Amino acid sequence: MKRKSYLLVVIIGIAIILSSCNLKQKSEKNIIKDLSKLKTYEAKLNVTFNNFREEREENWTQIYSKDLGYIIKLGEDRTYFYKDDNIYVTDNIANKKYVLEKEFDELYKYTVVEEVLKLLNNPDSKISCKNIEGKNYTIVELVIPGSNRNLVRGEVIIDNSTAKLDKFTIYDLKGDERVKILYTEFLKNKEVDKYLFQE
Questions:
Q1: Which of 144, 137, 114 is nearest to 31 (CA)?
Q2: Cβ(136)–Cβ(154) under 8 Å?
């Protein structure tokens, strides 16, 4: 009798988790849709690079405007302003400014929500639901374009309760983790300073 009761509890528990995930699967498209509707946001990122010999940690800031472009601040060293097909770089170390083609960037731009969503157009991308410690997340598996063997595949974790990016992990050709990005702060539809978006 006890065994039957135990099995019943286990079955009910599994059913709840699966049904919860199935319900969330129906709303995964809504999560992506919500992100695609973002007009502005500001985010703080903690970025860890792993090249097997050592780990390097950086703190970035993103400021995004659907109309004006987006800015990625790499600490106090450099600021990248993305507009159309160009990157306007302010290099505080060399004390100069210059312009790069957007295609030159193999990493930074893919941490921006708009660019993540564009990667979903790849037929090899996948979207699924995962319950982690009782909390539901949308998992987005992506293929990173380009020929860099250290940046081949990405996994984005989105918190379903807030529709905010939580974590982005990038793997190399062998499946080893190379870059881990934690979105420690993500402020949606925050008013941005238009004067920051200057070439």
A1: 137
A2: no
**CB environment 38-49: b (16+ within 10 A), e (fewer):** bebbbbebebee
- Residue identified by tokens 């982005």 is 168
d(CA 58, CA 46): 6
Measured in degrees and rounded to the nearest 5, phi and psi for residue 102 equal -60, -35
pTM for the model? 0.83
Low-confidence ranges of the chain (pLDDT < 70): 1-26
Look at residue 49 in the predicted model and tell me its pLDDT. 96
Cβ(186)–Cβ(43) below 8 Å? yes
Residue 60 amino acid letter: W
For residues 50 and 46, what is the distance between their CA atoms, to the nearest angstrom?
A: 13
Token pair listed for 168: 């982005």
Q: What is the pLDDT of residue 51?
A: 86
**Greatest extent of the chain over all pairs of C-alpha atoms, in Å:** 77
Backbone angles phi, psi at 108, to 5 degrees: -50, -45
Give 64: exposed, middle or buried? Use CB within 10 Å, 0-12, 13-18, 19+. Answer: buried
What pLDDT, in 10s, does the model give residues 84-113? 999 999 999 999 999 999 999 999 999 999
Query: So what's the pLDDT on residue 1?
Result: 53
